[in-house]
Amino acid sequence: MNGVAHRVNISRRFSERSLPTVDLSGALVLCDIEGAEADLFTPTLVKRLVASTVVIEVHEDVRPGTGAALTRLFAPSHQVERLDQAASENSPATHENMRAPLLHWLIARPAGTSIRLRHSSGSV
Asked: What is the pLDDT of residue 15?
């Protein structure tokens, strides 16, 4: 549709060992792996992601302290922002909404970039 389909790589499973086969320069990496994010992101992998924007859903309910650990890991090479996930006022109480205070996203942009994310309540 917009001519970039050949640049999109969607897979069911990546690991630190499989990622060397993927060109990550300028990539947007979206990670939602239900609590295993602290296992995937190692200093070696973060070095490979120096030119990539990385968005990670952090599951503090699975492993408390993960967000702080990932922030420290990415901080030398990326600008890291936290986006808190709030329960929706319009949706019924669900497991997802009850654990919302423990869920948040980290947005790690390569140092020196100036992209700002916005959502309905304003700038992140």
From this structure: 67
